[in-house]
Design a protein that fits this description.
The protein is built from 1 helix and 2 strands. It is mainly beta and about 30 residues long. A two-stranded antiparallel sheet has the order 1-2.
Length: about 30
């Protein structure tokens, strides 16, 4: 798994995704 941290509307979100996961699918 790969850890991804995003800032969405000022809120920080962390999630673990598989390396083959497309960003658009991770954001759902």
């Amino acid at each position: 798994m790969t850890a991804v941290t995003l800032t969405v509307n000022g809120a920080e979100r962390s999630l673990d995704v598989e390396p083959r996961t497309l960003l658009v699918h991770a954001l759902r």
